[in-house]
Write a structure and sequence with these properties.
There is one protein chain. With 116 residues, this protein is of the alpha/beta class. It has helices spanning 15-26, 70-78, 94-107, and strands at residues 34-39, 42-47, 60-63, 83-86, 112-115. A 5-stranded mixed beta sheet has the order 1-2-3-4-5, with helices on both faces. Strand 4 (83-86), helix 3 (94-107) and strand 5 form a beta-alpha-beta unit.
Length: 116
Amino acid sequence: MLTGLESNIKEDRTDLDLLFGCLLDWGLPLSMPYRSEKIGNCTVHTYAPGDAALNVPDALIACFDSNVPENVIKEIAKRKPRRAVFRDSSFASSPEKINVFEIFKLYAPDTDVKVI
């Protein structure tokens, strides 16, 4: 019954629409560098990339794919970004969504994690 519910995000929204919406919500400037890459089969967006050599974390890492596997979440968490954001549909169940927060507590406790 719950699978028939409407998504909280309009169907025509792209990953970049969601990313820039998050940037505005967090009050980040829209003029910083951005890149996207594949981790596993997932597209991961990094906004305001940091510098590991200088111990400067990425400002934000986002993945809006469906069914994001745990290894991708761990890879993002190991990068210790300031903020991480995922789409609610990135997880098949509530326990999987809760697990994301636990993974970040373990690898990147200072990261602000958000699920939209």
